[in-house]
Task: inverse folding
């Protein structure tokens, strides 16, 4: 059994169902550094692990200009058009 915690309000948990997983990842994975300190360390390690364990995956790196503002529309559209998956690096 998998438990998903919703950080927006834990007083009344929302029931959610996890989507089926194929067991493999294929396609283009985008790694978005939101420009917080040490986010690049997290994403570089994820890049290394994906390259090592998922040889069919192409990895592309993106960087937001600043974590203090929303991702610019042009960057969001570029990521949408180029990637099948996206991981954001939120590390501090």
Result:
């Amino acid at each position: 059994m998998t438990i998903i915690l919703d950080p927006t309000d834990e007083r009344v948990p929302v029931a959610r169902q996890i989507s089926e997983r194929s067991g493999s990842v294929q396609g283009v994975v985008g790694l978005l550094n939101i420009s917080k300190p040490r986010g690049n360390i997290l994403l570089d390690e994820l890049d290394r692990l994906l390259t090592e364990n998922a040889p069919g995956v192409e990895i592309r790196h993106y960087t937001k200009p600043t974590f203090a503002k929303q991702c610019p529309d042009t960057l969001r559209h570029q990521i949408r058009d180029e990637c099948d998956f996206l991981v954001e690096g939120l590390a501090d």
Summary: DSSP finds two helices and three strands in the chain. The helical segments are 39-53, 73-82. Residues 39-53 form the longest helix (15 residues). The first strand starts at residue 27 and ends at 33.
